[in-house]
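lol ok so funny story. i was supposed to be doing the assay writeup but got distracted and ended up predicting the structure for this chain instead. priorities right. anyway since i did it might as well share w the group, maybe its usefull for someone
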Amino acid sequence: MQQSLSIMNIIQLNEKIDTFVNQYGLSDDALALKQEHAIQKSDEWQAILDGFSKDGRVLRIGIIGRVKAGKSSMLNALVFEGRDILPKAATPMTAALTTIEYSETVRAEVDFFTQSDIDEIKKKHDIYCEKLEQKVHDKKAGLIERLKKKKAGFLNYSCSSEEERDCQKKAESQAEREMKSDPTFASYDQYRRIEASGKSLSDLQQYKTIQANSVEDLMTGKLNQFVSSGGDFMPFTKAVTLYIPEKGLQGLQLIDTPGINDPVTSRGERTEQLLQECDVVLIVSPSGQFLSSEDTNLIHRITTKEGTQQVYIIASQVDSQLFGNERAGFSSPLDVLDNITATLSNQARNVLNAQAASFPEMKILADKLNKNDVICSSSVAFSILKYFDTPAAWDANSKHVFDNLNYHYPDTFKHPELAKNALKKLANIEKLHQIITDVTTHKAHILTQRRTDFENSKRAALRSYLKALSALINERIHQIETMDINSLREQQMRLAKQQALITHHVSDVYDDLVSDIQLNLSKELKDELNRQMREYEEVSEGAQGTTTESKQVSIGRSWRSLWLTEEYETRQYNVQTVQATSVRRAIERIRAQLEDNLTSLSGKDAKIWREKAYRQIVSAVETAMRQAGGDQLDLTVIFRAVRNVVACMPEVSFKLKDDIPSSLKKSGQLKDTEAQNYLHEAENYVSRLRTTVRNDISNYINEWVGRLKKNDLPNTLTGQMNNYLSQLLNEIENKEASLFRYRNIQKELSALEQEVA
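and the output, tada:
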């Protein structure tokens, strides 16, 4: 009973604070404070808390990470003994949010996009088409202009219809290639698939529930139409819930997300909602690009904002790391695995300990990791082990990985029993099974603790929110007690007279600030890109070489002992080589560093820019008032107005939209044609990466600048200042009543803080 009362207190307090804020007209200031302190609506909290208390509630385990981090492969190994039951998303556009639960019969429930979802996708599709059309037009004009300059010897040269068609074709090809990195491309692709399907939402209602005789019948037959990239109904599929008679699923719900930062808005919102509901979270991060900024931001969020403390970090695809620098000095793959595990564990500890220093809520996870290592796992190793005695069942990737293991570690992989033991350690599925067993065994405790952790995290958020509100009220009281009413009236009249001048000065400063983003931030991000590209070129050159090989060559025929015999001689050839591991690792490292460094730079610079904007806008207001002559406005009025308008300015997050193709994930020394092809493909990828990142930078800058330009900050600012002065004047004219009111507010705030404590 006490627990229920405690839970209700969080909801009641949130509603009480909302009522309090609305009652005393503090909504404008409170809105920014709510965002800063992660205060959601009471009904959102209530829904989550009701779920914790529901009888027979399953334990929700979320499998979360970036697109192509290996989440579905890991779940296939964990739940389905390595069978490819869960579809692997080819792209973020074809990924489905998949939930798996226990049932005695096999079936699936399909959640389709609503009409409003499709309307939103269509809107972004149209924006993409407009951008593409403009880009094609600009590129075609440029190509024609260059053609005319090339024909400069011909007076008044006019392109032929064939030349114009050629320019149009090239322009379309270039524009389409560049637009694949545009934020609207996912919606364009999705809507194009919707149109091509020839289906409508009304056609789909009969398919919401799919019955099947077996898991294989469901996944490889009936459900393919809804989740595979070529499925007739895939374009409409938002999420799928699978009900499967696997004993290990009893009491559990496994949630396989399509990847954080889903490009399809409504599906991304559903994933965000599920984050709040997960009791246990497995963060899957590729060992070759371990703990990117996206991963660490996600860990920070689910522990500090959502109160989830049962978090496990999985380093996936560890087999890909066995052929690089980590193997130096080791001949056994298990020794290399230990070295990789230690390296990644130290990396994770450093990250989490640094975060825990600033956010105490993260200390539980940091302490847990300090006692235990990161869990390294390889789904492909599990698949190889599962079908070790029937290698014909291996797919191309499994065969490639085993060939590499056999080549680099012959002492282990030429002996079946040693090979099986190594594959078992690499797969590490037993450790993952142990996690599931442990959390299932302690389900009741975890659910109780999860409820407590969620409540504590929201209680802490309410405490910090109330503290900020209290500081705001104290400032108001100080103003009423110390400000002169005649001076305030003069300030109000002066503001009315000088509003145009203030707007002019602030507009100039604001325009310069926006231009500063276009010039300086764009340059800084592109300089970082160029630095990373130079690093790749150095590694690539160092990885190339030649080797001498012998070859028997026919030199003709001669008679020997009545027989006409082919004669051979041995000749030496120089063969080009490339250390694919070095090139691949350089690409993986540069790709990860680009994402981390550019995201970090953009975030850091956005914060610095906001601080600069605050200072310069304050200075612009002060300059305008000085030019007008007379006394300044009260600084607290200026500071408050500028602080609130700057806090409400739009912002955009930088995202890198690129994935390394699987064909580059080779290892060891490649020779001759294979080496040449690999180098050619690597250079093409890096060239595309450079273009993609430059486009991502331009899109990020353009989107942010576009939003800022639509924001009428100068007039919003003067409007805020006038409102604050009018409010303050009214409060000072009714000083006793105002002070009485604010001191009552203080008392209520103090009482609320006591309830939250």
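The mean pLDDT is 79. Residues 485-543 form the longest helix (59 residues).
back to the writeup now i swear
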